[in-house]
């Protein structure tokens, strides 16, 4: 079974198609900031939210996904790289 972006989105032509695809999945992988997309604001809750490399995520980026789950797991090593901030004004 091939699982790629092309295969998963082959039949997606509209926003409604994308929302239906997303709603049909039991596991969704995304970035912390991608959860700001309106598609995720439809009230769907997950059982668990897992944030990998949590030590590298800025606090404001990591807080958002936690509102989408009943339980959450933050995985990361605080002794490795700090959050990456590219903006001069941050």
From TrEMBL:
Molecular function GO terms recorded: 5'-3' DNA helicase activity
Pfam families for this protein: AAA_11 (PF13086)
Ranges where the DNA2/NAM7 helicase helicase domain occurs: 21-87
Entry GO CC: cytoplasm; nucleus
Gene3D superfamilies in alphabetical order: P-loop containing nucleotide triphosphate hydrolases
Protein name as annotated: DNA2/NAM7 helicase helicase domain-containing protein
């Amino acid at each position: 079974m091939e699982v790629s972006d092309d295969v998963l989105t082959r039949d997606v032509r509209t926003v409604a198609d994308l929302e239906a695809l997303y709603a049909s999945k039991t596991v969704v992988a995304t970035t912390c900031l991608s959860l700001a997309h309106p598609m995720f604001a439809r009230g769907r809750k997950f059982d668990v939210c897992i944030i990998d490399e949590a030590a590298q995520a800025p606090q404001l980026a990591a807080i958002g996904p936690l509102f989408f789950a009943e339980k959450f797991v933050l995985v990361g090593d605080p002794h490795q790289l700090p959050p990456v901030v590219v903006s001069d004004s941050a």
